[in-house]
Amino acid sequence: MFWSMPFDHRPSDAERLDAIRRHAHDSLRYFATAALGGEDRDWTRAYLDLTANYMALAEGDSLDDRSMLEKGSEIADRYLDAAKRDPWTPPCSFCGDSPAVAWFEGPRFTHSVDAADKVRAEGAWTACARCLELVRADDREGLVWRDAKRFEGRDGVDLERAMTMARDMHEKFWKARTGA
């Protein structure tokens, strides 16, 4: 889920670099797990290598192409080894907790499966155990509350704004699910 900073805050270079590192780390975990799982190996390996090169620019001692490619290869191998021991699983789409225990398959999100490799549709919303209970109970405000609480106070976001942002994001799920 994408949460923006308040309009009156311009990120510092350190905040920007930290966000790039976090995004690259999450992407590398995903691509490494996907590459090992046999999902379109050429595509996932290409993205794994490309993302590792960007991470190499952030982590490396040098910025030249040769150093970036060498460091990128080391980083890709590191993430592949880590994925063998601890495969990546997405966090809950509603609240961000892990592990996800259900994947609601798109485009209608009415059917869920209990593992990522069982998803047979484009797009999915994941749910942790608590959020799965809330979805089944049609407790939309409970889901909004769980999602909003993790962002309250972060980057100047107050609870009311966080709840509005969560409702807006969840609306996409509920509209597709109910066909509205």
Task: Characterize the structure shown.
The chain is mostly helical. It is 57% helix and 6% strand. The protein has 2 domains: 13-85, no CATH class; 102-178, no CATH class. It has 6 helices and 3 strands; from the N terminus they run αααβββααα.
Report mean pLDDT, rounded to a whole number.
Answer: 86
* Unreliable residue stretches: 1-7
- Described by its quaternary structure, the protein is single chain
Distance between the termini: 22 Å
Helix content: 55-70%
- Please provide the count of β strands: 3
* N-to-C series of helices and strands: HHHEEEHHH
Gyration radius, in Å: 19 Å
**Overall 3D geometry?**
globular
Structural category is mainly alpha
Give the number of helices: 6
Summarize the helices and strands and which ones pair or pack.
Elements (H helix, E strand, L loop, with lengths): L12 H24 L4 H19 L5 H21 L16 E4 L6 E2 L10 E4 L1 H8 L3 H10 L9 H20 L2
Antiparallel strand pairs: 1-2, 1-3
Summary, kept brief:
With 180 residues, this protein is mainly alpha-helical. It has 6 helices and 3 strands; from the N terminus they run αααβββααα.
List its traits.
single chain, 180 residues, mainly alpha, 2 domains, three-stranded antiparallel sheet, 3 strands, 6% strand
